[in-house]
């Protein structure tokens, strides 16, 4: 009985299919959180710019 394991072989080591799947899931989760964090930072920056403009306009109106 000859069973063949599904592995990517190299001369010195191999990577199992399960390791590739786990690593790809890990990278997708990391990229998702990075994109969400980037969007959050852009939103905070845009709100800061908007409120600074509003504050400056209100101060100019008072003068």
What can be said about the biggest beta sheet?
A: 2 strands, antiparallel
Strand content: 5-15%
- The average pLDDT value, as a whole number, equals 87
Alpha-beta classification: mainly alpha
Low-pLDDT parts are none
In which order are the strands of the major sheet placed?
1-2
Task: Tell me how many strands there are.
Answer: 2
**Overall morphology:** rod-shaped
Counted by DSSP, the helix tally is 1
* Helix share, percent: over 70%
What is the straight-line distance between the termini?
Answer: 91 Å
Strand/helix succession: EEH
User: What value does the Rg take, in angstroms?
Assistant: 26 Å
Characterization of the model:
The protein is mostly helical. It has a domain at 36-63. The protein has 1 helix and 2 strands; from the N terminus they run ββα. The protein has one helix at 17-62; strands at residues 7-9, 14-16. The relative contact order is 0.07. The model has no long low-confidence stretch (mean pLDDT 87).
What is the topological layout?
Blueprint: E1 7-9, E2 14-16, H1 17-62
Write a concise synopsis of the structure shown.
With 63 residues, the protein is mainly alpha-helical. Helix content is 73%, strand content 10%.
Which structural traits does this protein have?
73% helix, two-stranded antiparallel ribbon, single chain, 63 residues, 1 helix, membrane, transmembrane, 10% strand, transmembrane helix, mainly alpha
